[in-house]
Automatic annotation (TrEMBL):
One of its GO terms (molecular function) is calcium ion binding. PANTHER family: PROTEIN KINASE DOMAIN-CONTAINING PROTEIN (PTHR44329:SF214), SERINE/THREONINE-PROTEIN KINASE TNNI3K-RELATED (PTHR44329). Pfam families: EF-hand_7, Pkinase. InterPro entries: EF-hand-dom_pair, EF_Hand_1_Ca_BS, EF_hand_dom, Kinase-like_dom_sf, Prot_kinase_dom, Ser/Thr_Kinases-Pseudokinases. This is Putative serine/threonine-protein kinase. SUPFAM superfamilies: EF-hand (SSF47473), Protein kinase-like (PK-like) (SSF56112). Residues 578-605, 607-642 form the EF-hand domain. Keywords: Calcium, Kinase, Transferase. Residues 284-579 form the Protein kinase domain. Signal peptide: none annotated. PROSITE patterns: EF_HAND_1, EF_HAND_2, PROTEIN_KINASE_DOM. It comes from Gracilariopsis chorda.
Length: 657
């Protein structure tokens, strides 16, 4: 370690030592450690200046074979334990509650010897393997007292390694070491698609933040490594040619690192960017430009033998967006018939996402051409959208841009949610420029309206795509968003489906004479003041559909239902679609595994496997070994009256039998 690096390290240690002695600010994190305990669980312990200790224990089966949820949990904990940030017992408790929602099971916090402790049990979710370059195994290793290594292997047997020199005593992390491990786990997370050029080009991004990066590559052995010495001191040596050449190849869509050895081809010139002039993304061919806006272009293309849609983001210059967690979640999300399938994404030369191509019409255009839907037709469409949105939320993804232009209608009438909020995710770093919390409400509304009008002025309809008709009030008021933001938009979409109209616009006097900015400003003011579309326009539909809309677009996001609850409401009034949903083989009968899935869905963790079997036998009144629809219908009527858990106590009485 050179003198400049040692001096920078000593300065950080001196700073936090002084904080500890001064005990001010008292809630500042001054030290943290990350290590494997005797049970091979990962333990992150950190201490604030007032002497309070906090510990997250991530329960894992094997540190050499981490699931993607375990990788994600480690990353989350590392972000919470950064030196210099604040922590209090109340904040720790709030964070534990948030992690519990995300990972399903978190025990604590408990206090042991004045130390706050929480246990995280990441669900070992399986991910679809859609590419030979998918990472199938990721391990975390402590090689000696000062080095931690993240090592991954892909389906095609390529090995990728990131080695981090901790510099301090065993397991202690400077702020940059903390960042290094976070970035390493994001790059090498199980389920990600990774190939040599992408891995080595990301070494340039690591170098921008961590400064001392030494690459190593051997294409014959399919081995690629980045050794990191995290420091604030810029490296005096030039950028390694291996990283530069790989970045050029990645940006131009050519293949470089997979046939390159640092020692054997040191004089080889960089690949020409002329080699893939039409489409800069490896393995993708453009067929035609489908649409274009100020933010993005969408192309129809080919990936192998399959038609795909490629969305290229034009106004996103922040290359760190590769590390956005939401992007990676999309690749790990299991397939769902009402959600567009994501193949892969690219960080260079412009961020782009490659998705399934849906041959159909977006819902905005369909409603414009055909008008409102009937009660029965609309219910099927609404339930499909609700199912897809619930699947996204269950997978940890918030759309944030749900609207009728982002819902495609297939030729069979089924809906598919597209876009997946990628514009919002890719530009999250720019959110502060959209809503400045120091501005007054009127100033924020004016700025949002102006930005919306400028962004979408080139769209083919003045008041359709890209307007703020679906935005939730909390996003206007304080730039806050959650899964309930999507629920609000879903309620507006329900109204559109049954009314055949765009919301709010018919209530604006002389709308045709107003500018786009004036329309947007009027709509935003109405939304924050609690104005919602008129139920008089959907008077013919069932009352429970109207009440569901009202629940979904409630001004207070805390009062809105979850999408799981919405799906329950939409299915609960008709047992047939509920039965069909869990009849996975379309046999017309529910076998025990299918019935058990239903029970786990409606009372997760509350019914033991033994009780599930007892319930199954009770509902199967003719003892045929499976449940037909009439038996399920009778059972569901009881559940509606008494509740699922209460049914257990009465199922053996003559009242049911």
């Amino acid at each position: 370690m050179d003198e400049n690096v040692r001096r920078a390290l000593d300065e950080e240690e001196t700073h936090f030592t002084a904080l500890k002695k001064a005990k001010s600010p008292s809630h500042c994190i001054i030290d943290n450690t990350l290590k494997l305990n005797n049970q091979n669980d990962l333990q992150c312990r950190f201490e604030t200046a007032d002497g309070t200790a906090y510990t997250f224990r991530i329960i894992i089966d094997d540190p050499a074979d981490l699931s993607w949820t375990a990788c994600r949990a480690i990353c989350d904990v590392m972000q919470l334990a950064v030196r210099g940030t604040s922590m209090t017992r109340q904040l720790f408790q709030d964070l534990v509650a948030q992690l519990s929602v995300k990972y399903g099971k978190v025990d604590g916090p408990t206090i042991v010897n004045d130390e706050c402790i929480a246990l995280i049990f990441p669900n070992p979710s399986k991910t679809p393997i859609r590419d030979p370059n998918t990472i199938v195994r990721t391990g975390l290793y402590y090689n000696d007292s000062s080095t931690v290594t993240v090592k991954s292997k892909t389906k095609c047997q390529a090995t990728y390694v990131i080695e981090i020199n901790l510099q301090l005593d065993a397991f202690r992390y400077t702020k940059l070491c903390n960042k290094a491990l976070f970035m390493a786990l994001n790059i090498l997370e199980t389920g990600d698609v990774l190939y040599p050029d992408r891995f080595l080009s990301l070494g340039l991004i690591l170098r921008q933040h961590l400064h001392r990066i030494t690459p190593e590559a051997s294409s014959s052995n399919k081995f690629y490594k980045l050794a990191i010495l995290p420091t604030t001191v810029h490296s005096p040596v030039p950028i390694p040619s291996l990283l530069l050449r790989a970045a050029i190849a990645e940006a131009s869509g050519t293949e470089y690192a997979s046939s390159y050895s640092e020692t054997a081809n040191a004089s080889q010139p960089p690949p020409s960017q002329e080699s893939s002039l039409h489409c800069p993304y490896a393995g993708i061919t453009y067929l035609e430009l489908l649409k274009e806006s100020g933010q993005a272009r969408v192309y129809l293309g080919m990936k192998g033998d399959e038609k795909v849609a490629i969305k290229v983001y034009l106004d996103c210059e922040e290359q760190d967006d590769f590390f956005k967690n939401e992007l990676k979640l999309l690749l790990k999300m299991s397939d769902h018939p009402n959600v567009v399938r994501v193949h892969t994404f690219f960080a260079l030369p412009k961020p782009a996402i490659v998705m399934e191509y849906i041959d159909g019409q977006d819902l905005l255009d369909y409603l414009s051409d055909h008008g409102s839907m009937s009660n029965n037709e609309g219910k099927k469409l609404v339930l499909g959208i609700a199912d897809g949105l619930y699947h996204l939320h269950k997978s940890g993804i918030i759309h944030r841009d749900l609207k009728t232009p982002n819902i495609m209608r297939r030729s069979d009438g089924s809906p598919v949610i597209i876009d997946l909020g990628m514009s919002a995710m890719l530009n999250r770093s720019q959110d502060a420029s959209v809503v400045d919390l120091t501005q007054t409400q009127a100033e924020r509304i004016a700025r949002l309206a102006r930005r919306a009008a400028e962004t979408y002025s080139s769209n083919r309809t003045r008041t359709g795509k890209g307007s703020l008709l679906w935005i939730a009030p909390e996003m206007v008021l304080n730039n806050d968003w959650s899964d309930r933001t999507d629920v609000h938009a879903f309620g507006i979409i329900m109204w559109e489906i049954f009314s055949g109209k765009l919301p709010f616009l018919s209530d604006i006097p002389h709308a045709a004479q107003l500018s786009q900015e004036e329309i947007e400003s009027t709509v935003l003011n109405a939304i924050v003041q609690g104005v919602r579309p008129s139920l008089a326009d959907v008077s013919e539909i069932d009352d429970y559909l109207k009440s569901t809309m009202q629940l979904c677009w409630h001004s207070d996001p805390r009062e809105r239902p979850t999408m799981m609850r919405v799906v329950d409401i939409l299915r609960g009034n008709d047992p047939q679609p509920l039965f069909n949903h869990f009849d996975s083989d379309n046999s017309g009968f529910l076998e025990f595994p299918e019935f058990a899935m239903f029970l786990e869905r409606y009372a997760p963790g509350d019914i033991s496997p033994d009780d599930m079997l007892v319930l199954f036998k009770a509902v199967d009144t003719n003892q045929s070994g499976s449940i037909c629809f009439s038996e399920f219908e009778k059972f569901w009527a009881f559940v509606q009256s008494y509740g699922l858990l209460n049914f257990i106590s009465i199922m053996s009485t003559s009242t049911y039998v």
